[in-house]
User: Fold Putative glutamate--cysteine ligase 2 from Streptomyces cyaneogriseus subsp. noncyanogenus.
Amino acid sequence: MRTVGVEEELLLVDPETGEPRAMSAAVLARAAQDPAERDVFEKELHDQMLEFATHPQADMKRLHAEIVRCREEAARHAGGIGCAVAALATSPLPVTPAVGMGRRYQWMADQYGVVVHEQLVLGCHVHVSVESDEEGVAVIDRVRPWLPVLAALSTNSPFWQGKDSRYSSYRSRVWQRWPSAGPTELFGSAERYHRRVADMVATGTILDEAMIYFDVRLSQRYPTVEFRVADVCLHSDTAALIATLARALVETAAREWREGREPADPSVSLLRLAAWRAARSGLTEELLHPATMRRMPAETVVRALLEHVGKALEASGDYDRAHESVAELLRNGNGARVQRELLERTGSLRDVVTECVRRTQG
Assistant:
């Protein structure tokens, strides 16, 4: 059974006002006092962000439980210094991001200017184990059309600098400002993938391989493929669903590769349009169907994803759970819909943040 690990970026906020607080160094110092937590939490680009990483799990119920535990620990450490954590992919309230100290972050600030100062955006990255780089690249080539559907399920960033962005995931639009971000063409082999990465680093436009921000990439640190399209999800069960579907996509793609089936080859231009549509619509309107690249109701496209990975879900024992989670998400809405409904009900972005803090831990 393939193992899965999740990295989540959380927003540090004032528990009273909901405004982001640049307190990550203090939270990390507190967490470092606990030997069990030293490898769980990490610093990110901005001081208003805190990242955690789960241990790899083969059982999705255990992975979900670990996501919940890590969120609870993040909340505990933040609470110890007067902060709270919120699983929000952008801050609903206006914020001036504080770039972290260190040579790497300062190089990025000097190189990219305002782009770095706008990147207070928070994602969910899913690592799925693969047997080799060759299998990993075969997976990358074959999951490309389905990534916007994963992104649509996760959308959780409708607000930007105190205003409604009119997007379900404005985080993804901000993230696309990095020169190495976004969908990729077919690679065909691990050798071609690594050559492309080396050529990109050799231009000097990016600092190193860690700045390869493909929508899905080979991990530098682990024997995994890393999915990077999802917003951090408001609810932990949505994050677990994204991880479950990512593993099923990997298993489905690997099986197709072993059977000698060629990957579909929509152009990067069409994949960018599909990603834009997912960011704009989320689950509330239409998405581009991966098979036709034409607009269809979001529910129809999500059901197509479930059908595409159905055999893999059955093999892992996740079929019923995934279908139930999708049905609940379609019925009750993801983070973007919840945030907008909270604002409509309360009239206050501060109250939106306060409620999202509660849901992050709940």
The chain has a mean pLDDT of 96. The first strand starts at residue 4 and ends at 13. Residues 4-361 form a domain with the Creatine Kinase; Chain A, domain 2 fold (CATH 3.30.590.20).
